[in-house]
């Protein structure tokens, strides 16, 4: 099982690292690369067109401002694409969010919260778990850990 995390700029690396940390926890092989939809469009097309052949089963695309990376990739592959809108200095990431979420009919990009690296990876893992039973078990265990954390929080409140 293999996922790709692509960033429109190296400034998106912190978000990518959060996603990679989740993938590492679940033992999902990860390819990371900076690909700009606007500055390296040929590379974006090449990456998208070869993703499935290269064994990539889900793609996370992180981009800010115009945030076209996820859409460009999704338009050129059938591999599922999850977009992460990156926070910006201009509009706090709302510009990115609106760009990622407003895909034209027929070319979907799943979208998570602004800077939502962890949830993007967890959504990707959920998709992959439909094919990989061992991943499904790990995801169930992870969600149980989350539940246990909430139980502990309530014990702290009671104390």
Automatic annotation (TrEMBL):
SUPFAM superfamilies: N5-CAIR mutase (phosphoribosylaminoimidazole carboxylase, PurE). Signal peptide: none annotated. Its EC number is 5.4.99.18. Belongs to the AIR carboxylase family. Class I subfamily. Keywords: Coiled coil, Isomerase, Purine biosynthesis. This is N5-carboxyaminoimidazole ribonucleotide mutase. GO terms for molecular function: 5-(carboxyamino)imidazole ribonucleotide mutase activity. It comes from Ezakiella coagulans. Pathway: Purine metabolism; IMP biosynthesis via de novo pathway; 5-amino-1-(5-phospho-D-ribosyl)imidazole-4-carboxylate from 5-amino-1-(5-phospho-D-ribosyl)imidazole (N5-CAIR route): step 2/2. It comes from the Bacteria. InterPro entries: PurE_ClassI (IPR033747), PurE_dom (IPR000031), PurE_prokaryotes (IPR024694). It catalyses: 5-carboxyamino-1-(5-phospho-D-ribosyl)imidazole + H(+) = 5-amino-1-(5-phospho-D-ribosyl)imidazole-4-carboxylate. Catalyzes the conversion of N5-carboxyaminoimidazole ribonucleotide (N5-CAIR) to 4-carboxy-5-aminoimidazole ribonucleotide (CAIR). Substrate binds at residues 9, 12, 39. The lineage of its organism: Bacteria, Bacillati, Bacillota, Tissierellia, Ezakiella. Residues 1-150 form the PurE domain. Residues 125-156 form a coiled coil. The keyword Isomerase applies.
């Amino acid at each position: 099982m293999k996922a790709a995390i692509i960033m429109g700029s190296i400034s998106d690396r912190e978000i990518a690292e959060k996603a990679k940390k989740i993938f590492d926890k679940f033992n999902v092989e990860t390819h990371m690369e900076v690909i700009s939809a606007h500055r390296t469009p040929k590379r974006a097309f090449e990456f998208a067109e070869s993703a499935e052949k290269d064994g990539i089963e889900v793609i996370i695309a992180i981009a800010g401002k115009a945030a076209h990376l996820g859409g460009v990739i999704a338009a050129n592959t059938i591999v599922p694409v999850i977009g992460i809108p990156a926070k910006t200095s201009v509009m706090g990431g709302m510009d990115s969010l609106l760009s990622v979420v407003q895909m034209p009919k027929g070319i979907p990009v799943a979208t998570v919260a602004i800077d939502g690296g962890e949830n993007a990876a967890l959504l990707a893992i959920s998709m992959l778990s439909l094919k990989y039973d061992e991943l499904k078990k790990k995801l169930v265990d992870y969600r149980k850990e989350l539940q246990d954390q909430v139980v502990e929080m309530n014990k702290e409140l009671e104390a």
